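Shape matters. As here.
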Amino acid sequence: MIANPPAWLWAKIIGLVAYIILGAVAMRSAPRKPHSQLAFAAAISCFCWIVSVAMWKSPLGVFLIFSG
């Protein structure tokens, strides 16, 4: 019987999918276009959030600081 993975692991998986999609958008469009730069910044932010989720083992990640 396979146990359900914890919530922070699901958050990392969803974040990884978002990171891949944002990276693909950033690489496929012209580098000078605003949506390409926005997708690049969002992909970097998503990566940092994934790392924070892994460090704190909480789906909030870095936002755990602001939750009290």
